[in-house]
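Bumping with the actual sequence this time:
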Amino acid sequence: MYLAPKIYFMQRTFKSKIGWWMYVLILFFSFFFFIAIWERYIIWAVIMAVIDIWFISMLLHTEYIVLPDETLLLKSGYAPRYRIKISDIVSVGYSKNARLGYAISFDRLVITWNSGRLRHEQVSPRDKEAFIILLKKINPSIIVEDYK
């Protein structure tokens, strides 16, 4: 019986690709923040500031980390971190879906995995090809779906 050698690698971090619409949202809420300050609507200014900080944190801290224990860690600003076992990933496909998640660009990948039930999450790494190659190196049974 032949056993394939275990692949050992260092932690690899993939930064998220950033869509133009993210900058538009930040400018939009910043504009209304300054309008609220100018008009002395303090509650609205606080609300706009919190929303702006949320989007800026997404802009700066959205990344996808492949850990040495063969786990994919999804991070996005103040959103909860999400862990996916790479051995559970069934497929990776391309998507243009507008649902906001761990992807801050419309040029996205959909990761489908099975952890008791079929789940989906969207990511938008800058280097999609290297991301998919690394996932397939760890789990060769991952199906890569083409553009739809």
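The tokens above came from a reply further down the thread. The mean pLDDT is 88.
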